[in-house]
Write a structure and sequence with these properties.
The protein has 891 residues and is an alpha+beta fold. The protein is built from 32 helices and 26 strands. The protein folds into four domains: 128 residues, Calcium-transporting ATPase, cytoplasmic transduction domain A, CATH 2.70.150.10; 172 residues, HAD superfamily/HAD-like (Rossmann fold); 179 residues, 3-Layer(aba) Sandwich (Calcium-transporting ATPase, cytoplasmic domain N); 201 residues, Up-down Bundle (Calcium-transporting ATPase, transmembrane domain).
Length: 891
Amino acid sequence: MPSEYPDKETLLSALGCADTGLSSHEAQDRRQRYGPNRIAFHRRRSPLRMLAAEFVALFPLLLLGASALAFVAHTLSPGEGYELIAAALLLVVVLNASVSFVQNYKVEKLMVSFLDYIPKEVVLLRDGEKVLLDAQDVVPGDLLFIQEGDKIPADGVLIGADNLLLDESILTGESEPLAKVALVEEIAAECRVNSGATVLSGHATVLVTRTGRETTLGAISRLSRGVVQDLTPMQRELKAFVQMITWLALGIGGLFFLIGLFIGNPFWTNLIFAIGIIVANVPEGLLPTVTLALTQSSVRMGRRNALVKQILSVETLGGTTVICTDKTGTLTRNRLQVERLFVDFEDIGPGGRRAFTRGPTAGPLLEAMALCNDVMVLEREKGRERFKGDPTETAMVEFVDRHTPLESLRARFQPLATRPFDAQAKYMWARFRNGDGTYLAVKGAPEVMIERCDRIHRRDGEVALDADQRARLAKQARQYAGQGLRVLSLAYRRDGGEVEAEAEGLVFLGHVALVDPPRPEVPAAVAACKSAGIRIIVISGDKGETVSYIARQLGIVTTPKVIEGEQLSNMDLEELIEVLRAGEVVFARIDPEQKLDIVNALKEMDEVVAVTGDGVNDAPALKRADIGIAMGRRGTDVAKEASDIILLDDNFATIVHAVEEGRAVYDNIKKFITYILTSNIPEILPFIAYVLLPIPLPITVIQILSIDLITDILPAIGLGNLPPEADIMRRPPRRRGERLVDMKTFLRSYGLIGPAEAALSFALFFLVLAHGGWSWGAALTLDAPLHQQASAAFLATIIFSQIGNVMACRTNRQSAVPPLFAPNRWIVAGIVVEALFILLVVYIPPLHHLFNTAPFPVWAWGLILMAPLAIFAIEEGRKYLVRHGAGYLSA
């Protein structure tokens, strides 16, 4: 079916119909040919499949592999606690898979809310009669009747319309109502209607041209379904980290399995200890700790009006380098107000030569603004009127009400007749009885109003309007429009007994310039973004002058290059990238595909892109962006479901708070990964020493698991909930290639603090053994009391060393001494749990067999309690060197 029709005859010919509707038989044939008027949605995955997918990601597979190995070890060597290890690892995987499944199941409903924009029943002309049918039965060529409150179910052309006003904000993103007119000869934009639009007022007859997937709404749905989301930076980092840990664990385990065989140890003994080394290398607590840290951060963002749908989005927002934002409602209040007046050739208002005050020229202008509109007064609220109507007219009425009581002004005039705004004539009028005559108030486009006036109201009264004055009025209107303001002009006429029908011979009153004003808190947020190295790009469906004006007002740009949709459509990807790199730019009159093109170009430039949106048209770009941000108050369900974060207050400043939270959570995750990795060294080295040296095994696998899943968890969560550092929004965004866990992190954990913890633990282990009479090379079974004492001392030293480690990890470069005086409740709780745990496993007999522990000499506690101080001092020394130029020691 052709998509463009130059005139009515070509349209009817292409549709194979007349303007009298279809027969039921013909409609049935067309439904078979074109299909039902239904949008094809995102293909659903079964919940079972989604749940199964949670177990095949790399980290769950690693933990499941470790669990399987533990079951094998239990089979080979029962009674060593390996079955508990296997069960614990399996439980970790199941719990995390459950949390992730719940989040992803919510996202799976993406695009289903398109159904909200397709009405259930519609009125059609079939067999010459109006009938009520299911909206799915609409076919091309149908005659559709619409009225106030209806949602349009298909694309079409108006062949009859009476004062039709549509809301197409779900398609365009702009809230300004659009006046539509019936087709006369050539088909223009003013006589087209699109599926999903809502009828605000009037009624019309629509000749349907497209249905289902071929409609404007269907095209956006197809575009959204075809968009592929990249992994978030956090997902990529965790994937790389898990790969690294997996190969490290397998490499070390395999190496020492071969070494054990080489020195003559039994095969099965070597296999069991290889499994122990692998399990010791796997940071079992990482996944739940990351999940909890991100969840807590999401909760904090929710308190600041940013609702996080996917917890990994928190960290992504922290890495944002570019924010693509729309204008209406996000940067602005989404509420028009009178910004300037041009009365008696004077510019009045903000930036004008004087403020507005009532006087000889002001009174008549206020009268016309109060009378020439269809605004309804609903009720009083806190002593002020509430008004309902067209946003432009409401703004004028509110302006009047601030300067003179509206009710008393209207009371002097008795309504007689009104001609609503006409999109072709570009003006409206309202006639009133006033005294012995009538009063006509007229409002319209400046060029039309100037033409219809022959006089102008000035301070000295009405005077003739000459050519020079007309030129001055037209120039001022163009100047306002060039500043991005919406301009209307007002005039009046007083008649005696005879009433002239047409709005001619009018007295010009003045121009009224309106604007959707910027939110007062946005300039500070924009400044914060700039200091944080984040670029802001405004993308709007509004006209270029308005977009440029708002962007300049807010300090986003100074002298921007305005790219409109038509220009953008003629650019290829390389040209668009060149424009984006060139400097300050804003985009206006942009359609959905083009917004997606801009996002793709920025991602091609290796930017981390956040996109805001509220309409159906924004869904593809929201889905494609690294982070999609939907408006909570005015956003459509489609935009909300396509997004990662929903702004409950529709406020750009909230995004900046969320960026700060995102940066903080990245820093904190980096800190607790450093903390968690550190204990791997004192967990791994005992197995290596046991294979290579004639000594008892210092630590068991069940003890390792108790560290990873019991004592390390709460302190790690505490590190994940630290407040943002003072300079966090003065740093540039982290580099795209920056690793969450890099070589410096490994050097800090595996090369410095880990070995220090291992050295202290081995020292206590051998001291307790020597105190009990053990000599080098002597055999000692796992259940021997002396071995249990030494093993308990080894475990206690690691746990207390981690107390010093967690306090040191609260900072990376700066001294960690000041934070000691600002305790974190999670860290404090973690330290209490660590102390209680080691006391329980050392002194409660029922736990001795499970954890292979026994009470050790009291004097050992003095050395164990010194361990956290030693670790803290070592880290303070490293940070001191870093602050004095030893950058290679930073993490």
